Amino acid sequence: MVVILIILGIVFGKNDTKPEINQSSSAPAASNATASATTTGNHTDVTENEEALIKVTSNELLKAYKANEVAANKKFKDKKLSISGTINSIEAGLGDEPYVVLKAGDEFEIDMPQAKLATSETDKAANLKKGQKINMICTGDSEFAGTPMLSDCIIQ
After folding, report:
1. pTM of the prediction?
2. What is the spatial distance between Cα 73 and Cα 65, in angstroms, rounded to a whole number?
3. Beta strand 133-144 with 98-102: parallel, antiparallel or unpaired?
4. What share of the chain has pLDDT > 70, as a percent?
5. In angstroms, rounded to a whole number, what is the distance separating the alpha carbons of residues 122 and 67?
6. Residue 144 CB: number of other CB atoms within 10 A?
7. Which of 30, 78, 100, 153 is 20 to 30 A off residue 143, Cα-Cα?
8. For residues 37 and 156, what is the distance between their CA atoms, to the nearest angstrom?
9. Is the pLDDT of residue 12 over 60?
10. For 84-133, how does the pLDDT look when each residue is reduced to its tens digit (9 = 90+)?
11. d(CA 62, CA 85)
12. Which of 56, 120, 51, 121 is nearest to 82 (CA)?
């Protein structure tokens, strides 16, 4: 248990040095994606947003990192991802910042992707349920000890 807390401290502690960069880069993309989804008259924006987002499932993300971490980082790190999956758990990390663990791999998998939610998503996180299907827009944030990490996630 202590090891898990230390790992979480390292993982979520490293992101504290760059929230302004990730927040500013993720907020416009998320708001543009929402706006383009509700606006039918601007087809060009929808196409640009879809091209900017890499669509991936939690299983695909885990498989990519298990197969080749360097290739997975090249494909996902610091990129905008539209990730879908099933919630394994809803947790609060250091500073009570919410994150979601997404099911991936088999039932005994310990390296399931972790999605740190943007601060604007705290109220939504309180309404999430284990086993619920979820779609989020996140920034790929490499992996830690084999666990794919996502940051600044906006629940769709």
Report:
1. 0.65
2. 8
3. unpaired
4. 67
5. 33
6. 16
7. 30
8. 11
9. no
10. 999 999 998 888 889 999 999 888 888 899 999 999 999 999 999 999 99
11. 11
12. 56
